[in-house]
Structures are given as C-alpha cells and as structure tokens.
Amino acid sequence: MTIRLSDLSRCFQGVTPSIVVTADARGVPNVAYLSHVHYIDDRHVALSRQFFNKTARNIEENPRATVELAEPLTFQTYRLRIRFLRSEKSGPLFDSMAMRIQAIASHTGMSGIFKLIAADVFEVESFEKVEGFLTDAAGDPSEVTSVDGVRSEIRGLQLVAERVSRADSLDLLLDSVLESLDVYFGFEHTMILLEDETTKRLVTIASRGFEESGVGSEVQAGEGLIGTVARERRLLRISGLREDLRYSRAVKRESGVGAAEIPLPGLPDAQSALVIPLVAGDRLIGVIAAFDRDPLRFGEWHAAYLEILAGQIAFGIERMLDRMFDRDEEQVTERTAPAPAIVPAEGPRRTLIYYRNDDCIFVDGEYLIRNVPGRILWKLLGEWQRDGRTDFSNRELRLDPSLGLPPIKDNLESRLILLRRRLDEKCPEIRIVPTGRGRFALRATGALELIER
To answer: Which one of 57, 243, 359, 374 has the largest count of C-beta atoms within 10 Å of its C-beta?
Structure first.
C-alpha cells in the first residue's frame, strides 16, 4: 500500500518531537529537535524558525535536510528528505504557525520573546518508512481504526444546529450546545466565553465537565490560548500541549524572564486543546474551547466541523441577544409596585460587601461578582432591603443610567445569566428567577447584611 504524506497526519500534530538534520558546506552535520513540523500538502512542509541559528546557517549553505517524524500511536518513524525553497515572514502560512507559538508563549509569560521568526518552506523530495525501527510490525497509521464515523459527524452537526435554532433562551442555548458536544463529539471538558462590551474582556458564562465551573472567570484578548484566538479570530488546534509548554518554559528559564504564567482554565493537565472564535459577521461574540487529557483527541475533522458549528452558535447567540432586547422594548414602562416588606426565612446569615471604586462584591469575604453584574445585584438588593421589592424587568435595568449599560448591544441577558450562575455557586440564598418575558424576581432567604465601602 502506497502511503501519502497526508496519511501521516498524526505525525504533524507535535505530540512527539521531530528531528531535523542539516549539514554545512563542508559536510559537518547538525542535529536539532523540532516541536512541530507543519504539513502544507503532499509535496511540501514548513519548519518554524525560532532559535535554531545553526540550522538556519546550514540551510543557507546547503539547502537539503532530513527530517524524522514519529507516529505517536504506533511509534513508527518516517524519514523525509527535503529541499529548502523559501522563507515566509508574513501571509496565511506564517500567521497560522505564528498563532500557535504566540498562544503558547502567552500562556507561559513569554510573549515577545518566544516567537516565530520565519516559516521555512521545503519541498519533500522523498520520504520513507524507517524499517527495523520497531521489533514488531506496528502497521501503517492509516490502518488504525478511527472512532469518528461519517454518521456521527453529520448527526452531530444536525443535533447542534437543531438545538441552537430551537432554544428559546440564551441559558438553554448555551447548555444545549455544550451537552451536544459531549454526547455526539465526546468533548467532556468545554466552556463558552462571551465578550463583555464594556471591558472588552472574555467572561466564562457556561462550562461542562470541570471540577470548578469557572463561571465569571475573565480572559484578556491576547492572553493565553483563549485570548489569542479572540484577538486573531482564528481557530487554534494544539496537540501535545504539555510538550509545547515544557519547551517554552525551558526557554523562559534560560532567558530569565519572570512574567507570571496564566493557568489553563479548568483542566491544568490538558494535553490537547481546540479553541474556536464565535464570530457573527464582523463582530466577535466570544470563544468556545474544548480541552482533553488525550494528546490526539482533536483531529482535523473536529476542527473543520466545529468551525462550521461555531458560526451557527455565534449567530444563534447574537439572534437570542437581539430578540431579548426587542422583547424588552415591548414591556410597559411603568414601575412594578413595591411588594410588602419581606420577612426573611430562616437560613444562614450572609454578609455582602460592595466596593464602589471597582463595582466588586464579596460575600463572606469571598469574591462574588464585579462590573455591570455587580452593579445590577447591588441595585436589586438595595431595593429589596429598602422597599421589600422582589419583581423587576429587563427594561428598567436598561433605562437605569447608574448601571452604565451600553446603549446598543448591552448583552444584558448574558450578564443576568452570569449573575444567576455565580449566585447559585457562591451564595444560593440569593436567587434570580425568570418570571416572564423580560421579567424576573429576586428571591432571598436567611439574613443578609449589606455593606457599602
């Protein structure tokens, strides 16, 4: 059976390091390890030029080199004989390779130091299977049975599309998407982050499969894997994540850079990641991310299919936010009459402190929420405490200038979801319960002490 370069897709995922061998004009060899060899097509590959000065000098003197790739499942080795064609310092190929390196560098505090200098493009003149490398025949990588069938792919697309179109609330849409990815794609650790129009930071609004939900955690654009995808608005698929991080940290130690490392959200021992921007038109809605301990969990077809799904999810979220805004505008403008004063039910005593300088709320000394959701919660609690009021509407929140909501695309619905989920996790004695179209109620039990500083 003839093996094509495209049949070796797992060899190009960076799970196991590759070896590049060059020689100078006098024939003196040099051997270096590569964290990643980039597949272009069946006749071309690209090597990332970062710190390999000796390799680069040898290529200038002698354009031919040899690369050895290892198949991470069978451990079979393949040898490529390649010839240098050109260096690219801009364009789609360079951007694609640079994004991977930028994400790893940002994740380990090496931004601006650990970076791509050039993408060196080589023609593959020949490649062969290294015989005798294994004592037992490992077989060809193309013969390894795949669990990803066409039926599950198409059904997965259909299921997510149906749930996105049928969801009657943003809350249901978010949970349905993550559940579908788990059931039909086997993605057990996923999260969705939406962009906050006010701060321009990404905020985790839904997650599945993590010990801690991470709801409310924030990521700055350009920060780590998720922030890099948000800034570049392009998909990022990384396999062998631990090896990339180990390499970047080694460079960091050698350079003496002391920048703080940003932890991987939710799954610190992740071996692979698939992070996709949620873009509707020219607007960044957010990011959807999947992590796994299996370094080969996310294949090329996952990236292709989920990129299609990401577009549907992004437009579904935008449609839902717009529809909620339109529905709120239909609400009557009169203020709901105050309810009788509430006598709190028996329950624990909770102390909530609101720091006005940064709109941050702590409950019993533990961080709860901040920014616009923090201002919303303090408004609700204040009116509940003063007047015994429990019923509120989205419209009145939008018309309240003290909350500082943007006049257009305020994402109020997502902010209320975030607030409700944070309360469920950190202070279940306070609940926000939907009561109708564009309306909700504040339910509080126990004794609440409200302090403003």
So the answer is: 374
- The sign one gets for the Cα dihedral 276, 278, 284, 286 is negative
* Residue written as token pair 């004989």: 81
Same domain, 113 and 254: no
Count H helices and E strands in the chain, helices first. 10, 20
Tell me which residue range forms the domain holding 205: 150-327
Q: What is the pLDDT of residues 32-83, one digit of tens each?
A: 888 778 999 999 999 988 765 788 899 999 999 999 998 887 778 999 999 9
Rg (CA), the chain: 26
Where is the domain boundary, 108, 128, 143? 143
Residues 112 and 240 in one domain: no
- Could you give the CA distance from residue 363 to residue 369 in angstroms, rounded to a whole number? 9
As given in the structure block, the two tokens for residue 404 are 């500082």
The whole model's pTM is what? Answer: 0.71
Q: Which amino acid is at 322?
A: D
Element (H, E) at 377: helix 371-387
Same structural domain, 206 and 274: yes
d(CA 422, CA 33): 46
Closest CA to 342 of 386, 380, 393: 386
Long-range contacts of 155-159 (CB under 8 A, 24+ apart): 155/184, 156/180, 156/184, 156/185, 156/305, 157/305, 157/308, 157/309, 159/183, 159/184
d(CA 5, CA 10): 11
* 136 and 168 co-located in one domain: no
Task: List the chain residues with pLDDT less than 70.
Answer: 1, 51-52, 105-114, 133-153, 156, 242-266, 322-347, 408
Element at 203 (helix H, strand E): strand 202-208
Q: What is the b/e burial string over 195-228, where b = at least 16 CB atoms within 10 angstroms of the residue's CB?
A: bbbeeebbbbbbbbbbeebebbbebbbebbbbbb
Question: Vertex 317, ends 159 and 425: CA angle to 5°?
Answer: 90
Q: Which residues pair with 452 in a beta bridge?
A: 354
State pLDDT tens for residues 326-371. Answer: 455 444 333 444 444 444 445 678 999 999 988 899 999 999 998 9
Identify whether the C-beta of residue 386 lies closer than 8 Å to the C-beta of residue 339: no
